[in-house]
From TrEMBL, chain A:
The active site is at 211 (glycyl thioester intermediate). GO terms for cellular component: cytoplasm; nucleus. PROSITE patterns: UBIQUITIN_ACTIVAT_2. This is NEDD8-activating enzyme E1 catalytic subunit. Its EC number is 6.2.1.64. One of its GO terms (biological process) is protein neddylation. Belongs to the ubiquitin-activating E1 family. UBA3 subfamily. Keywords: ATP-binding, Ligase, Nucleotide-binding, Ubl conjugation pathway.
TrEMBL record, chain B:
SUPFAM superfamilies: Activating enzymes of the ubiquitin-like proteins. One of its GO terms (molecular function) is NEDD8 activating enzyme activity. This is NEDD8-activating enzyme E1 regulatory subunit. InterPro entries: APP-BP1, ThiF/MoeB/HesA, ThiF_NAD_FAD-bd, Ubiquitin-activating_enz. CDD domains: APPBP1_RUB (cd01493). It comes from Brassica carinata. Keywords: Nucleotide-binding, Nucleus, Ubl conjugation pathway. One of its GO terms (biological process) is protein neddylation.
Length: 458, 534
């Protein structure tokens, strides 16, 4: 490197991107010290997970000009984390990951504030998530991703032309790794596909058929799962199996070994037992570092506009040579999580029964025998009989009252729909808007519009 | 002479700490890492992050070479330096941080500028297994490459430059037995069953009246039998035309009596294995035809075994490599499955014994100790014989002075590759710029940037011309962006590039999985990164 008098600024390198105008930049990019200082002072980023990806994300974001970070993780540090979760040492085993991670990064990068949250993501109020400009995910399960996705997309509002309202958009950057493979993606609710829109990307986990486990085991994994899923309950009755309890694991290993010997099957080891039962995913520092760096880079670009962003899914494979690929997935406009939902405008006097009847005739729905849910409340359930009876009184009440007399909200309806001449179970998201107008509901193919002067569709 | 691989012993606490990575490369791979010594040149974030990943993984030893002192600007991009270390040796500071990450690693530092070291003390590098050279300019890269080739030291280049960067391996030859491909067809030999397999298949009656037994016959048996019947009525040939293949598949389907016969469903899906061409793949054929397979006394164990493989294929293999020996899971009674497994296992062992004998004979023939290649190594070779890989890398100076013009033209013309080749050329162009003007374009703020940009836009086409392509110009916006980057070493880009470099190092040292070929050019703008083989 050529050595010359360099300006004594901590953000010597970042300044080149944030202070200088560029060519291949994001929309609304205003380079300058204001941008840099605003990122430092005002932008808040939430890092979900303080494990393999989370540790890297915190470091990467702290060294990318972000000063206000929060990190949430419900786990404690284990020895098997230490080959990659570099913020933790042997002495830290047992301590909450979020707290140690936050502390270590703050020790090394002065000026950055990291608030740790040692808790489950579900235990936080929704408002908590709304305080952040952008959320970076370093998670290891589909369920957790779905949860954060539904929360972030829940903030999204649409205006009358079904355009997402930009001030309600909560972007997310999501990363995942497994061995030498990984992915990084950008989710801008209402613009790019959300996690739910592309849920088909994640094939269901392959489980062994019960008859194989019970009758014709052929390999070590079959013997292990037999002990874990079948024999355990036979012997221990109601006691639930705890994979973190060494005695439980040893029991499964011993039983699996016995079964394997009985059938003449080789290969049962303690390590394999743990791997199968806990569904252990092999993990190394390098892949985590790569994927987190990609996510942090996108976070910086989305917030600052200093360059174009990833559109919108990066797959990475470093085991057989080195392969990266960018795919631009498209949104599912009817997505139940990030879509606007079909707009239905109603009079405040319409009863729940009438509403359910209307759904059957609505051209886009043709939904019969609908059950109706408003947020966490079931307003009406077609089945089972005991719940149907319990909710039956609601049918004669105005939907407006049942929904708490608010002007508009999201409602989910579930029933049997006629799609492509076939009857299918269907769950649909509806946007119900109440209007204080007299008259009868009309229908058209695009929206239902309450208008006392019209008797025919618009 | 090849050093034999001892079965390593690992303490329980260490096994636990490394559990998640042992599941990938095993204790043998881990031992290779722990025996390796790595030299890092320049410990800005690119180098530091690369080394961090290796230290966490338990690399044997590291030596950090960097002559600079920690500056305030480093606090903004390097996690391994902090306020207290400003003014101190960067190598010493980074080394101390890395040592703390894993006390099993031996961490050293040398406070010297790598460019000078390359000029004044080339023999310094011979002591290492591998050198990671970061942030070097073209001239130093070429010189270091010569030194490492000569000394037979593996070399990995890594560079971060604004939102771009590159990683390039430079090794004369890297042979891989345990390549662990993601997807590879099993070695069931349904298209070429050997006598013992045929005999076993004959003992099973497909037409059994017992419905339970019927649906627990493994598809291997079903297909070998049905293929044999077909051959009898088709002049000893297997289905080859599209019609024949369809006919055969329908024939298998027609044997299904009820819907729950998973074994027949699997058989229908596996018919393609009956049609697959016999014998070894083109890639393996190339390896056994390689001139290095004509072994001499200095040949590596790999090539000696390849020579044995060549003989095996032409003789007892009858066109096939040694049997891999394992079976995928399939619907079957336990008894049938275990019995079949034994048959595959036995043949694999027999093939391995033949290979062992051949290896011993070849070693003796070239004047080496016949037992110098262990049974274990030969066994692993046999198991992986269809998956062998040989990687060879051009020297940097050859690539620079004599790139493949057809590849170059293809990249320049392709939309997918245009930004990658653009950055590749610009990385060379900025080094030329620096050699002339004693700074990188856009390195400093102020009015100079415009002038630097226009100079860069002149230099870039001349690089392309030298590479053998006339009349090409790079998009102006790409050149301007390069100028905007001003040789910045951004932490996130450095972490990405360093991550890739560390992963390649792991593959090279463990000799498992397949290292990248060519030069990986990173595109941090839209992530359209590409590997270029020029």
């Amino acid at each position: 490197m050529v050595l010359m008098d360099a300006p004594q600024s901590k953000s010597r390198d970042l300044d080149k991107l944030l202070l200088r105008s560029g060519n291949l930049v994001g929309p609304g990019f205003f380079p300058g010290t204001d941008l840099r200082d605003d990122i430092r002072e005002y932008v808040r980023v939430l890092v979900v997970g303080a494990g393999g990806l989370g540790c890297e994300l915190l470091k990467d974001l702290a060294l990318s000009g972000f000063r206000n970070l929060d990190v949430i993780d419900m786990d404690r540090i284990e020895v098997t984390n230490l080959n990659r979760q570099f913020l933790f040492r042997l002495e830290d085993v047992g301590k909450p990951k979020a707290e140690v991670a936050a502390k270590r990064v703050m020790e090394r990068v002065s000026g950055v504030e990291i608030v740790p949250h040692f808790s489950r993501i579900e235990d936080k109020e929704l408002d908590f998530y709304n305080d952040f400009n952008i959320i970076a995910l370093g998670l290891d399960s589909i369920e957790a991703r779905r949860y954060i996705n539904s929360v972030a997309c829940g903030f999204l509002e649409y205006d009358e032309d079904d355009t997402p309202r930009s001030e309600t958009i909560k972007p997310m950057v999501d990363g995942g790794t497994e061995g030498f493979k990984g992915h990084a993606r950008v989710i801008v609710p209402g613009v790019t596909p959300c996690f739910e829109c592309t849920i088909w990307l994640f094939p269901p986990q392959v489980k062994f058929p019960l008859c194989t486990l019970a009758e014709t085991p052929r390999n070590a994994a079959h013997c292990i799962e037999y002990a874990h899923l079948i024999k355990w309950h036979e012997v221990h009755g109601g006691k639930s199996f705890d994979p973190d309890e060494p005695e439980h694991m040893k029991w499964v290993y011993d039983e699996a070994t016995k079964r394997a010997e009985l059938f003449g099957i080789p290969g049962v080891t303690y390590s394999l037992t743990q791997g199968v039962v806990k569904n252990i995913i092999p993990a190394i520092a390098s892949t985590n570092a790569i994927i987190s760096a990609a996510c942090a880079l996108e976070t910086l670009k989305i917030v600052s506009g200093c360059s174009k962003t990833l559109a919108n899914y990066l797959t990475y494979n470093g085991g057989e040579g080195l392969h990266t690929k960018v795919t631009e997935f498209e949104r599912d406009k009817e997505c139940l999580v990030c879509g606007p939902g079909i707009l239905i405008e109603l009079d405040t006097s319409i009863t729940l029964q009438k509403f359910i009847d209307m759904l059957e005739e609505h051209p886009k729905l043709l939904l019969s025998k609908a059950s109706v849910k408003h947020g966490k409340d079931s307003l009406y359930m077609q089945a089972p009989p005991v719940l149907e009876e319990m909710h039956r009184p609601n049918l004669s009440k105005p939907l407006y009252d049942l929904m708490g007399r608010i002007e508009k909200d999201t409602v989910h309806v579930f029933g049997t729909a006629l799609k492509n001449e076939e009857k299918q179970s269907s769950l649909t998201k509806l946007r119900v808007v109440f209007k204080e107008v007299d008259g009868v509901a009309d229908m058209d193919t695009a929206t239902w519009r309450m208008n006392s002067k019209r008797k025919t569709p618009l | 002479m090849e050093k034999d691989e001892q079965e390593p012993t690992m303490s329980e606490p260490t096994k636990t700490k490394y559990d998640r990575q042992l599941r990938i490369w095993g204790e043998v791979g881990q031992a290779a890492l722990e025996n390796a010594s790595i030299c890092l040149l320049n410990c800005g974030p690119t180098g530091s992050e690369a080394l961090k990943n290796l230290v966490l993984g338990g690399i044997g030893s590291i030596t950090v070479v960097d002559g600079s002192k920690v500056e305030i600007g480093d606090l903004g991009n390097n996690f391994m330096v902090d306020k207290k270390s400003v003014g101190e040796s960067k190598a010493k500071t980074v080394c101390a941080f890395l040592q703390e990450l894993n006390d099993a690693v031996r961490a050293n530092f040398v406070e010297e500028n790598p460019d000078s070291l390359i000029l004044t003390d080339p023999s310094f590098f011979s002591q290492f297994t591998l050198v990671i050279a970061t942030q070097l300019v073209e001239d130093s890269m070429v010189k270091l490459d010569r030194i490492c080739r000569e000394a037979n030291v593996m070399l990995v280049f890594a560079r971060s430059y604004g939102l771009t960067g590159l990683v390039r391996i430079s090794v004369k030859e890297h042979t891989i037995i345990d390549s662990k491909p993601d997807h590879f067809l099993d070695d069931l030999r349904l298209n070429n069953p050997w006598p013992e397999l045929k005999r076993f298949v004959e003992t099973i009656d497909l037409k059994t009246p017992d419905p339970i037994a019927y649906k627990h016959i493994p598809y291997v048996v079903i297909l070998v039998k049905m293929a044999d019947e077909w051959a009898k009525t088709h002049s000893s040939n297997l289905p080859s035309t599209r019609e024949e293949k369809r006919e055969f598949k329908d024939l298998v389907k027609s044997k299904m009596v009820s819907m729950d016969e998973d074994n027949y469903k699997e058989a229908v899906e596996a018919t393609f294995k009956v049609f697959a061409p016999r014998g070894i793949s083109k890639e393996i054929q190339e390896i056994i035809d390689d001139r290095y397979a004509e072994v001499g006394s200095n040949s590596s164990a790999f090539w000696v075994m390849v020579a044995a493989l060549k003989e095996f294929v032409s003789n007892e293999g009858d066109g096939e490599a040694p049997l891999e020996g394992s079976m995928p899971d399939m619907t079957s009674s336990t008894e049938h499955y275990i019995n079949l497994q034994k048959i595959y296992h036995t043949k694999a062992e027999d093939d391995c014994l033949s290979m062992e004998q051949r290896v011993k004979d070849i070693l003796a023939k070239v004047g080496r100790d016949p037992s110098s290649i262990s049974k274990q190594t030969i066994k692993s070779f046999c198991k992986n014989a269809r998956k062998l890989k040989v990687c060879r890398y051009r020297m940097i100076e050859d690539e620079f002075s004599n790139p493949s013009v057809t590849e170059l033209q293809k990249c320049l013309a392709s939309q997918d590759y245009s930004s990658a080749i653009g950055f590749y050329i610009l990385l060379r162009a900025v080094d030329r710029f620096a050699a002339t003007y004693n700074k990188f374009p856009g390195q400093f703020d102020g009015g100079d940037i415009e002038e630097d940009a226009s100079r860069l836009r002149t230099i870039a086409p001349s690089v392309i011309n030298e590479m053998g392509c006339d009349g090409y110009e790079l998009p102006e916006e790409l050149c301007n962006e390069m100028c905007r980057f001003g040789a910045a070493e951004l932490h996130v880009v450095a972490a990405f590039i360093g991550g890739i470099a560390s992963q390649e190092v792991i593959k090279l040292i463990t000799k498992q999985f397949v290292p990248m070929l060519g030069t990986f050019v990173f595109n941090g703008i839209d992530h359209n990164s590409q590997s270029l083989t020029l």
